[in-house]
Write a sequence for this structure.
């Protein structure tokens, strides 16, 4: 039989260890997002917003034959949803434009190329095989490719969190389009 000092030490250790273990478990549960399916409060607003059935207004551009061919191939490969946002019909240029969700994420193929000066310190993002330059606007962020033969832009509305994640979901499809011979140094992985 243990002496009283040993039993007392064991009781104190137990009284300290149990609350510490419960606190650690609660902290881990909170950090990992809790048990079960995600609740609606953690779902992006756009994924919960009903998507209108009407088309998204987008302008079409006159494209050179090569650019038109590349854009048609890209649009044919795009998924029907990105991160739970359904693709929507566009008013014009369906062979060069795509839209997802509400407010819509807009993809435009055959946009004006972005040229960075040789001394540029702009931050570029190589995402899933394509290199992007983001530019913040009042409406959101416009991401434009720097390394594609036919430039592509994706406009992510301000209301959507983590704009780069939405672009990354489309980036593998954009990366399948022909690359430019030379891309900015930050685009090389």
């Amino acid at each position: 039989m243990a002496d009283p000092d040993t039993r007392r030490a064991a009781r104190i250790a137990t009284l300290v260890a149990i609350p510490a273990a419960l606190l650690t478990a609660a902290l881990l549960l909170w950090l990992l997002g809790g048990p079960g399916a995600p609740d609606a409060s953690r779902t992006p607003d756009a994924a919960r917003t009903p998507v209108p059935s009407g088309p998204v207004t987008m302008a079409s551009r006159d494209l050179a034959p090569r650019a038109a061919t590349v854009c048609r191939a890209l649009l044919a490969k795009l998924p029907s949803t990105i991160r739970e946002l359904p693709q929507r019909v566009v008013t014009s240029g369906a062979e060069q434009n795509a839209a997802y969700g509400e407010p819509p994420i807009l993809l435009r193929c055959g946009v004006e190329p972005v040229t960075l000066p040789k001394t540029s310190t702009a931050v570029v993002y190589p995402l899933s095989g394509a290199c992007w330059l983001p530019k913040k606007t009042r409406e959101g962020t416009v991401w434009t490719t720097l390394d594609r033969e036919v430039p592509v832009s994706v406009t992510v509305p301000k209301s959507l969190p983590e704009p780069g994640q939405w672009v990354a979901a489309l980036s593998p499809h954009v990366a399948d389009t022909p690359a430019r011979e030379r891309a900015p140094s930050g685009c090389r992985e």
Remarks:
- The two ends are 67 Å apart (CA to CA).
- The first strand starts at residue 81 and ends at 82.
- Residues 4-31 form the longest helix (28 residues).
- Confidence is low (pLDDT under 50) at residues 36-43.
